[in-house]
C-alpha cells in the first residue's frame, strides 16, 4: 500500500528502510464528519482517492497516537492528518513536533507576534505545531512577560503606598530578590498574622489524649490506570478516580473554614494541576500554604518504592519535586516529614537519604504483620531509625508507624467512595446517631493510644483517591470533631480532637520529650499475613526494571553534557521532561511491576519519549565537541540502539559507522562494547588512529529469536573501549573485503616434540572461501570444545570446513557449510597434503564406526594416549580431560564441563572456588485467595508451590575463543539460554542469559531463578544492598527485631537486590552484580539465588486485578539479562574497595550511540575531536554522583563510597577537577537542594539504648549495648562525621557522606584536537 498524501513516497514495501522507523498506515475513517475533515485536510475528494486509501503515520503528531494493551499502535478517534507538518516558527519539519495547545502557547505566540495562526492554519490545512526548541523559547518568553508584568504591578502598588523617598530602598530589595531567585511578589512570605509550618500547629495539651485528625488522599502516579487517566478521571470503569477533581474540591473546602487542614504528597500530580489553574485559584492556594492549612509532605515527584529504586534515582526525583515546591511556595511549601504510607517495605538507605535532605521525621504505612503486632504490644510504634552506621547520628530519623496503614478507622470512612454511615445530627431524625458514633470513635482512639508512648495519636482520614467530593468528607469530620469534643468536655474524658497534619503531630510528639526505642536495619521483607510475603514484586516486570535503569543512565549523561558542553539553556525543557519521566518511574507501582499491563506500557511510552527528546542534548554536545562549533551542521545522527536485543539498524545496514560512547563515571574505565552487525570482517579504529583488537562473534539463536527483536544482524563486533572519566570517545568501524586465499603452509618440521603439540593447538586453519560469502547456519562448534553435531557424524559428504577469521574471530571455529572436498585440490599445483587433510577430516568427523568424535580431543595424528603424549613432551603440561576444558584471561581461569557447557571451578592465582550456575524454576501456588491457605503467587506475592525448585538441564552449545572474549554457551529444553564470558583485561565473569517465553501449556505459572552454587561456607549469612548503596547482613530464617515464625520459608527469606548480593567466608567472597533490581536470597550454604523472570496465571488479590502474564508479539515475554560475578578476597581491603567501584560502574554503564558514516570518510573522521575528557579522574573512594545545570549555577554532589576507617576521609580541590569548568565559589545545601546546610537543625531525641557501632557485626553476635561497641560516654565511635573542615574550594568528604554544592563557575572551551595531540 502507498500513502495517498500528495508527494509522500512511503509505501509498505519501503517502510522498513525509511529514515523514520515505525511507520504505520491508517485507513480513512468511515464516519462522515471525520472523513470530511480528513479529506479537507488532505485537499482532495473521495473520487480522487486510490484503493485502498491510506495515510501514513508521518502525517500525524505523536500525540495523535496511543498504544493498545496488545502493543498495537493506533490513532485517536478524533485525530486528523495534515499534508505538511512543520514548526510554525522555525519551519523545521524533521524535529519532533507538538501542538501549541499542549502547553497553552497560542496566547504567548499572539502576544509575541501580534498575529493569529488560526485563520492561516485553517486555510492551509496546517496544524499549530512547534518544535521542542521553539516551544521552550516561547515558554521562556511567556514566563519573562509574566515576571515583568507582575514586577510592574508590584512596583506600581509600592509607589502608591510609599513616599518617593522609600522607593529606592524598595527597588534595592527587589533587585536582591531577583538575583537570589526568589519571586518578586509576596505570594510566598507569610503576611502579618499568617503562620506556616510548625508555628501554624494547634497546640497539643498535656494531660489529654490529643487526637490529630489528618485528612489526606493517596494518589498513585499510575497503577490500575495511567497517569493521565488518573488525573483526568478517565476509564472510571476501572477505578473511579480523578485527581483534578480532588484538588479542585479540596481547595474549595479549605477556603470555607480556616480550621480545616489537608496534606498533599505527589508533586507530579500537583504540578500537572497547578499549571492549569487561573491566577485566582493560584492566589488562594498560596494563601492556604502560607497559613499552614495546605501542607506538603514527602514532596517528591512520586511516592517512590524503596525496594527496587536506586538511591541516585531517589535523590533525583526528590530534588525535582522539592524544587517545584520551593520555587513556587518557598519555605512554607517545604515538606518536613516523609510520608511513605503505601510502599511494600522500607529500606535503611531511604531513611539515611531523608535525614540528609533535612527531614525531621518519616511515617510508614505498611509493616510486617508480626513486626507490627510486637511493636503495638510493646509500645514501639515510634522509634529512632539509624540510616547508616558510618554516618552515625547525622543519619538518625524519627520514624512512626501509622495504626491503620493510611485508612480511616473502620466505620468512619465518609468519602464518596465509601459506604459507612455519615454522622446524622438532627435529633428529630429517626436516624440520629451522634452519640453512638462518638462512643465508637472514642473507643477506637483509646485502643490506638495503647501502642504509642505519648499522649498523641495520628488518625488518618483518607485513602486511595479520596476527596473527589471533599465537602462530603469535611462536613462529617467537622461534626465528628465538634461532637466528640463536646462529649469529652461534658464528661471530663481528657481527650481532644482537632484537624492536624503529620508535621504538627511530629512537633507534638517532640514536645512530649519521649524516650524512644531504636531501629538499625530495615523493614524487609514485608508480609501482610502468614502466606502473603510481598517479595515477588522485587522481580516482577523485569524488562520495565531494566528500562528504568537505562533511563537513569541517559538522564545522568544529558545532565553532564548540558553543563560540560555549555549548551543553550532552552535544552532544560527536554531535560526536565526526562526528570519527570524518571520521577514517575520511581513510583511504588511503576518500577515495582505491580501495575496493570496497559499502565506498564504507558510508563514505557513516557520514558521512551522522554529519552528520545532528551537525547537532543547528547547530539548537540557530541556535535559541538567533535567540530569545535555548535553551529556547524552535524555530521552524524547519533542513534540509539537496542543493544540488549543485539539490534541496531545503523550498524546492520552500513559498511562503516561511528560508535560514540559516553562514560558517566568520574574515573577511567574499560568496558566491553558489542555492536550488532552482519557477517563480515571489520576493523575498529580508536581516536588516535590506532586499530584496536576486535572480534566477530555470532549472535546466539536464542537472542535472534527474541519476539520483539527486529534485526538482520547475525553477529556482534566486540572490542574493549578504554574510556576517560566523564568523557566522550568515538570509534570508527568499517567493514573490509577479504580476498580469497589458500593456506600455503608447507610441511612443518620439529626439533622438539613440545613444539609439535603447541603447533597442533595453535595451527592455522585453512581458509578457502571469501569471508563475505560464508553463510553460518548454526552455532559454533569449536575444536576441542564441543561434540560434532549429529547431522555431521555419519554423512561424510556433508562436512563442515574450518575458516580462519583473522583478528576478528577465534581461529578454531566451525562454520557449517556443505562443501565438496575436491574443491580443495588444484590439478596444476602439487598436492600440499590435501589428500591427507581429506582423510583426517573424514576420520575426525565420521569416525571408524560412524559415530561423532569430540573436538575436545587432540587431532589424532599419532595413536598415543594422553599420558604418552605428556611423557614425550620436554615441558610439563596439563592434558585437558575429555569432559572438561578451560577459559582463561589475565586474572582467572574457569573450568568448564564439556557436556553441559557450565562452569565448575573458578581458579585464581591464590585460591580455587567451586562454582556452578544452575537455572531452575519455582511453580507458583494458585487459589481463589479467599483465605491465607488459598493465596496465589502474583505480581506482589511470591509463594512457591514446592519446597525445591525444578532444575533445568543444560547442553553445551559451543565455545568461542578469541583475542577479546572467550565464551561458552549452553542451551536447555526450557527456553533458557546461557553464555559465560571472560573478557581480556577485565576481572569479572559475565553471565549472559535469555529466558522465555516461559512455558505455561501445563497451566502452571513459573518463576525462574538462577543459583550460583559455591563451596563458600557462609553459615546462613548473606548480604544484600540497600537501594544500591550500603550492604545489609541477612540471616536465614531470622529477623533482628522479633522472633520470626515462617509459614513461607522460601518467600520469607527473599530480599530486594538493587545492585548486589554476596556471601563470604574467611577465604572467598562471591558477589553477584545485577543489571536491574531483582529478588534474591541464600537458602542453602554456599548458594546465591536470584529470581530473574516471572510468568503467573492468577492474581494475588492485592488490587491489581490481573495475572502477571506478560506477553509480547503474541507470546510470553522474553528477557535478556547480564550478571557479573566477582570473586573477592575478604581480607584484602583494596579488593573490597574495588568491589564497591565495580558496583557503581555496573550501574552506570557507558551510553552508546551509533552513526552512519557512509558519507563521512575515515580521513574526515580522524580529523575531528573524537576524544573529550570531561574531568580529571577522581581519587579512589570518591564518586561524582551529580553534575547538573541549576539556573546559572551547577549542582555538584560528591559521594565517598568508602567504609569508615582512619584514612577514609578524602579531600578534593574543586577548582582543579573539571577540564572545562572553572569553579569559582560553592555553597553547600541539603542532599535534595531544598535548604542551605547552615539553616538545617538536627532534632535530638532520647533513646532507650545506644546504637551498635556496626549492625552487620552485631547482628547475630552476642553483645549488649554497654559493651565495646560504644564508647563509655555513650557516643558512638563514628559520630565525628561532619567535623572535617573545608578550606575554600578544598572540600573533605568523609566515609559514606554525600555532599551537595551549588557552584558558580566559568566555562572554559575544551582543548581541541588542533591544540592537543596526545589523546
From TrEMBL:
<dbReference type="Pfam" id="PF01074">
    <property type="entry name" value="Glyco_hydro_38N"/>
</dbReference>
<keyword id="KW-0326">Glycosidase</keyword>
<dbReference type="InterPro" id="IPR041147">
    <property type="entry name" value="GH38_C"/>
</dbReference>
<keyword id="KW-0238">DNA-binding</keyword>
<dbReference type="InterPro" id="IPR012934">
    <property type="entry name" value="Znf_AD"/>
</dbReference>
<keyword id="KW-0378">Hydrolase</keyword>
<keyword id="KW-0325">Glycoprotein</keyword>
<dbReference type="InterPro" id="IPR028995">
    <property type="entry name" value="Glyco_hydro_57/38_cen_sf"/>
</dbReference>
<keyword id="KW-1015">Disulfide bond</keyword>
<keyword id="KW-0479">Metal-binding</keyword>
<comment type="similarity">
    <text>Belongs to the glycosyl hydrolase 38 family.</text>
</comment>
<dbReference type="Pfam" id="PF05485">
    <property type="entry name" value="THAP"/>
</dbReference>
<dbReference type="Pfam" id="PF09261">
    <property type="entry name" value="Alpha-mann_mid"/>
</dbReference>
<dbReference type="InterPro" id="IPR050843">
    <property type="entry name" value="Glycosyl_Hydrlase_38"/>
</dbReference>
<dbReference type="InterPro" id="IPR000602">
    <property type="entry name" value="Glyco_hydro_38_N"/>
</dbReference>
<feature type="domain" description="THAP-type">
    <location>
        <begin position="1"/>
        <end position="84"/>
    </location>
</feature>
<dbReference type="InterPro" id="IPR011330">
    <property type="entry name" value="Glyco_hydro/deAcase_b/a-brl"/>
</dbReference>
<dbReference type="InterPro" id="IPR006612">
    <property type="entry name" value="THAP_Znf"/>
</dbReference>
<keyword id="KW-0862">Zinc</keyword>
<dbReference type="InterPro" id="IPR011682">
    <property type="entry name" value="Glyco_hydro_38_C"/>
</dbReference>
<dbReference type="InterPro" id="IPR037094">
    <property type="entry name" value="Glyco_hydro_38_cen_sf"/>
</dbReference>
<feature type="binding site">
    <location>
        <position position="87"/>
    </location>
    <ligand>
        <name>Zn(2+)</name>
    </ligand>
</feature>
<dbReference type="InterPro" id="IPR027291">
    <property type="entry name" value="Glyco_hydro_38_N_sf"/>
</dbReference>
<feature type="binding site">
    <location>
        <position position="131"/>
    </location>
    <ligand>
        <name>Zn(2+)</name>
    </ligand>
</feature>
<keyword id="KW-0863">Zinc-finger</keyword>
<dbReference type="Pfam" id="PF17677">
    <property type="entry name" value="Glyco_hydro38C2"/>
</dbReference>
<dbReference type="InterPro" id="IPR038441">
    <property type="entry name" value="THAP_Znf_sf"/>
</dbReference>
<dbReference type="InterPro" id="IPR011013">
    <property type="entry name" value="Gal_mutarotase_sf_dom"/>
</dbReference>
<feature type="binding site">
    <location>
        <position position="90"/>
    </location>
    <ligand>
        <name>Zn(2+)</name>
    </ligand>
</feature>
<protein>
    <recommendedName>
        <fullName>alpha-mannosidase</fullName>
        <ecNumber>3.2.1.24</ecNumber>
    </recommendedName>
</protein>
<feature type="domain" description="ZAD">
    <location>
        <begin position="85"/>
        <end position="158"/>
    </location>
</feature>
<dbReference type="Pfam" id="PF07748">
    <property type="entry name" value="Glyco_hydro_38C"/>
</dbReference>
<dbReference type="InterPro" id="IPR015341">
    <property type="entry name" value="Glyco_hydro_38_cen"/>
</dbReference>
<dbReference type="InterPro" id="IPR013780">
    <property type="entry name" value="Glyco_hydro_b"/>
</dbReference>
<feature type="binding site">
    <location>
        <position position="134"/>
    </location>
    <ligand>
        <name>Zn(2+)</name>
    </ligand>
</feature>
